[in-house]
Write a structure and sequence with these properties.
The protein is α+β, with helices and mostly antiparallel strands. The chain contains eight helices and 19 strands. It has three domains: about 80 residues, Uridine Diphospho-n-acetylenolpyruvylglucosamine Reductase, domain 2 (2-Layer Sandwich); about 120 residues, Uridine Diphospho-n-acetylenolpyruvylglucosamine Reductase, domain 3 (2-Layer Sandwich); about 80 residues, UDP-N-acetylenolpyruvoylglucosamine reductase, C-terminal domain (Uridine Diphospho-n-acetylenolpyruvylglucosamine Reductase, domain 1, Alpha-Beta Complex), CATH 3.90.78. It has a five-stranded antiparallel sheet with strand order 6-7-13-11-12. Strands 1-2-5-3 form a four-stranded mixed sheet. Strands 15-18-17-16 form a four-stranded antiparallel sheet.
């Protein structure tokens, strides 16, 4: 049986890709299949084929919050960013498909005079990924403006209310149910003058450019802020600003970013994360929790 041919019944399928091609960090091993469904029927068909053949799968948007190992992933990566990227504006409500760029969506809402997504104007990735982790900035997050989420689960398409999504700081119910696939999100926004929204987004863009190492591949912020602390302060206090393992380095510009200086290996990157966790635990008795998702690693190394 040719599984690739079966998958191609429903979508374009690529072979020979690696997570280094599929993530903003540019790190990670080969992937057996990369699949690009263009509608809900195609997605349903793809999932049925993968489950029938017991092939693991992983949803990946822009890969902006993902650290994959350098080992081969003998499964399928399903990507929405080519086709599931439309959005619809109806009054104060916005519905965006999971593959829609969050930055593009925030700019579209700004032009429509809709306020609420300003905080996400610099958050890379897609709607699906940012709902999954309840992404946020400037003390705001996705849960603040979400109304409901369209999900594929148990072979059905369902709208889940925000209350059923168990949102908290960088968390959602989807982290406990990895087989639930986020398809779209409905936002409840507020009318404001376009100039006011644009001004705030411009100020924040300048702040990001001046404080974040955007010229290097990274996953964005590595660690969640523990209660009462900023992560970068803890990393500075243990002396790890500028710390380097191979081509993985704690940024001199913003120490809660670990950047890829060229050809960083996944092991070096993960070892640097774990070393920081150990030092912070020793010094502050704090469990330093990563925001970044660590994927396709032997259990003993996580």
């Amino acid at each position: 049986m040719n599984i690739k041919e079966d998958l191609e019944t429903y979508a374009k399928v690529e072979e020979g890709k690696s997570f280094s091609d599929l993530t903003t960090l540019h790190i990670g091993g080969l992937v057996r299949y990369v699949v690009y469904p263009d509608n809900l029927i195609a997605l349903d068909g793809i999932i049925r084929i993968l489950k029938k053949n017991q092939i693991p799968y992983k949803m990946v948007g822009k890969g902006s919050n993902l650290l994959a190992s350098d080992e081969k992933f003998d499964g399928a990566v399903i990507r929405f960013d080519r086709h599931f990227n439309d959005y619809y504006i109806e009054g104060n409500e916005v519905i965006a498909l999971a593959g829609c760029s969050t930055i593009a969506l925030s700019n579209a809402c700004m032009k429509a005079g809709l306020s609420g997504l300003e905080f996400s104007g610099g958050i890379p990735g897609t709607v699906g990924g940012n709902v999954f982790m309840n992404a946020g900035a400037y003390k705001e997050n996705m849960a603040d403006i979400l109304k409901e989420v369209l999900v594929y689960l148990d072979g059905e398409f369902r709208w889940l209310s925000k209350e059923k999504c168990d949102f908290s700081y960088r968390h959602s119910i989807f982290k406990e149910h990895r087989d639930w696939i986020i398809l779209a999100a409905r936002y409840d926004l507020k009318k404001k003058p376009v100039e006011e929204i644009a001004s705030l987004m411009s100020q924040r863009k300048q702040r990001r450019l001046s404080t974040q190492p955007l010229q290097y591949p990274s996953c964005g912020s590595i660690f969640k802020n523990p209660q009462g602390y900023y992560s970068w302060q803890l990393i500075d206090n243990i002396g790890y600003r500028g710390k380097r393992k191979g081509d993985a380095m704690v940024s001199e510009k913003h120490s809660n970013f670990i950047i890829n200086m060229g050809r960083a290996k996944a092991d070096d990157y993960l070892n640097l994360i774990q070393e920081i966790q150990e030092k912070v635990k020793e010094s502050y008795q704090i469990d330093f929790v990563p925001e970044v998702e660590i994927f396709n690693w032997p259990e003993k190394k996580k």
